[in-house]
Amino acid sequence: MSTPNKDIEKVEVRLKWDPSPQGEAPNDLDIIAATYPADEPFGSPAYLVHFDSRAPDGTITLNRDSRTGQGLGYDEVMTLELDRLSEAYSRVVVGVAIQQRDGRKTFGAIGNTAVQIREGYTNLAEDDFSAVAAATAAVVAEFVRDASGVWQFHGTVRGFDGAPDSFAATMGSRPPGA
Predict the structure, then answer these.
(1) Whole-number Cα distances in Å, 177 to 9, 31, 174
(2) What's the angle, vertex CA 65, arms to CA 61 and CA 67, rounded to 5?
(3) In a 10 Å sphere around its CB, with 0-12 CB exposed, 13-18 middle and 19+ buried, how is residue 71 labelled?
């Protein structure tokens, strides 16, 4: 759909964290995107994109995946090409989950966590997860297509306590009080 309004077209979600101390289980954080159909934007996601996957149409891809947080700069990067996403979808929710296979870990237990959401050179949002330090996962962004077809960004950091699988199944549900 063509519109004279400037909307969000291509977004990068970038995540970084410090590796765990030597001898401890690795800190493994993952970016997860859930895409919701226009006719049921708060139901079950049509599909999820995370490590070892991508959107069926190639519009959402995980460009960089880390299982340890080692390296310089951002450890994980996901690209969302919202301008190419089918009109059948009206909502994309992005979250970050900490793998829990070696015991319960929270954002507060992992050093120097940060998430950055960018469109080109413009920062749409940045957060360090300090407000959700006791959580094991968090929603970090929501993109909603309005009736005219324009994508809007809603920055939010909403914590969740549980395993990555249960987070992925519920991350797009309505927030309490909404």
Answers:
(1) 30, 26, 8
(2) 150
(3) exposed
Q: Is 165 helix (H, G, I), strand (E, B) or coil?
A: helix
The answer to whether the beta carbons of residues 158 and 116 sit under 8 Å apart is no
Phi, psi of 131 (to 5 degrees): -75, -15
Q: pLDDT tens digits for 64-110? A: 777 777 777 899 999 999 999 999 999 999 999 999 988 899 999 99
Instruction: Count the neighbouring beta carbons within 10 Å of the beta carbon of residue 23.
Output: 5
3-state SS, residue 167: helix
What local confidence, expressed as pLDDT, does residue 2 receive?
38
Q: How far is CA 150 from CA 3, 37, 80, 108, 177, in A?
A: 8, 15, 15, 36, 26
Confidence at residue 67, expressed as pLDDT on a 0 to 100 scale: 75
Which of 79, 110, 111 lies closest to 94 in space, CA to CA?
A: 79
Confidence (pLDDT) at 64: 79
Both structure tokens of 134: 């006791």
For residues 50 and 46, give the distance between their C-alpha atoms in angstroms, rounded to a whole number: 14
Residue 39 CB partners (closer than 8 Å, separation 6+)? none
* 3 state SS of 177: coil
CA distance linking residue 49 with residue 57, whole number of Å = 11
